[in-house]
Task: inverse folding
């Protein structure tokens, strides 16, 4: 790993910073038991071990008739088996029971033929194609999907609709999940004010970053603490950051991490903890800090709105997923063919805003958005991906395969 951590004047490679962040991330933030109705998009905290088999019993996979296969073509129909209303008597050779999908297979039966392949006349049933019937067909055997004692899900599993459906199928009404990390979000600078606040007619800018960052973190499952704007006054900044470190599992600021005279974040953090990196070899997002405030992880993101969201996606997200307990999380990346020449800057990872589509042959293609200024928030919702240009590539010809990152969780 690079030795630039702890040195404020050197550019940190993206891969080095990501490895450093993952190594420095604390353990997940705790465990709580919640009902299944509140567990969607939560992260499983304990192994889920089956105490029931799935299917619970051997059942029919089709509507039709059930019987013991002995090579015969006709049967005496003696009753019916319905889902929720099983046929309780044994079925002898030469006898059959009409059966519905999901109904328990009656004792003595080992084969089901679907309704389309039988002919019923009063209490007799004939197979339309007896030569095609195989013993054991159209049956779901007890425990064939999940056996008692199986480890169904491991800790760190994200609980989506299919996982919650499986938990319900196994008889669970509640489940142990990791708590939602609490994230305190600050914007920095006397030039900012919040929408809805008083207007003293002083030239100012509305704070957009706190709202866009909070929206993204909420999509990831955070419990967001919206704080006051950090003023350009050291003592007040120190007090607010110190208070946040007692309330939050993660602290994020935007703005105030460049070399400007009014950028006091560095001085405030140095009074409360440590920062191990101030600049990263990436565009947008070069002025980005990472460290700890009284043992709580801290990210100082750039003030430009695009750079703030891009660095959130690249660097905050991996640590946040670890805090959430999602150990196996990896960013989504695809390959696409660029439709025009691309230009980057050697020595930095360039993340260009672009739009991808899939052509009639199923090939993903991507083009770059014209406006790339990191102050242009509109360029993020006009784009649907980031195009990666690695540090060792300055130009990229049309038709070259490139790596793209879909922006589904930002736009």
Result:
């Amino acid at each position: 790993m690079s030795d630039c951590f702890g040195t404020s004047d050197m550019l940190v490679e993206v891969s080095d910073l990501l490895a450093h962040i993952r190594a420095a991330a604390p353990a997940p933030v705790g465990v709580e038991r919640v009902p299944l109705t509140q567990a969607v998009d939560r992260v499983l905290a304990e192994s889920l071990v089956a105490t029931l088999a799935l299917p619970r019993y051997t059942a029919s996979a089709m509507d039709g008739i059930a019987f013991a296969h002995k090579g015969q073509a006709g049967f005496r129909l003696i009753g019916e088996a319905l889902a929720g209303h099983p046929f309780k008597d044994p079925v002898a050779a030469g006898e059959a029971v009409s059966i519905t999908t999901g109904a328990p297979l009656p004792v003595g039966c080992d084969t089901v033929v679907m309704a389309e392949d039988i002919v019923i006349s009063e209490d007799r049933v004939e197979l339309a194609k007896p030569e095609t019937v195989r013993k054991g067909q159209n049956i779901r055997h007890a425990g064939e999907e999940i056996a008692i004692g199986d480890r169904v899900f491991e800790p760190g599993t994200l609980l989506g609709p299919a996982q919650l459906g499986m938990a319900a199928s196994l008889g669970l009404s509640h489940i142990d999940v990791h708590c939602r990390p609490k994230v305190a979000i600050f914007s920095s600078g006397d030039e900012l004010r919040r929408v809805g606040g008083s207007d003293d007619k002083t030239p100012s800018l509305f704070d957009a970053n706190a709202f866009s960052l909070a929206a993204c973190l909420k999509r990831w499952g955070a419990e967001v603490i919206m704080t006051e704007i950090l003023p350009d006054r050291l003592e007040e900044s120190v007090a607010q950051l110190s208070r946040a470190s007692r309330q939050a599992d993660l602290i994020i600021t935007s703005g105030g991490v460049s070399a400007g005279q009014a950028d006091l974040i560095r001085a405030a953090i140095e009074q409360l903890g440590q920062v191990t990196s101030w600049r990263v070899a990436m565009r947008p997002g070069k002025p980005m800090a990472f460290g700890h405030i009284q043992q709580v992880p801290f990210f100082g993101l750039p003030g430009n709105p695009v750079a703030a969201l891009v660095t959130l996606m690249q660097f905050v997200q991996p640590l946040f997923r670890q805090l959430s307990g999602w150990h196996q999380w990896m960013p989504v990346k695809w390959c696409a063919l660029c439709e025009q020449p691309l230009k980057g800057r050697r020595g930095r990872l360039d993340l260009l805003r672009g739009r991808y589509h899939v052509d009639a042959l199923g090939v993903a293609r991507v083009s770059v958005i014209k406006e790339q200024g990191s102050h242009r928030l509109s360029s993020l919702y006009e784009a649907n991906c980031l195009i990666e240009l690695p540090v060792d590539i300055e130009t990229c010809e049309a038709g070259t395969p490139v790596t793209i990152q879909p922006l589904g969780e930002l736009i």
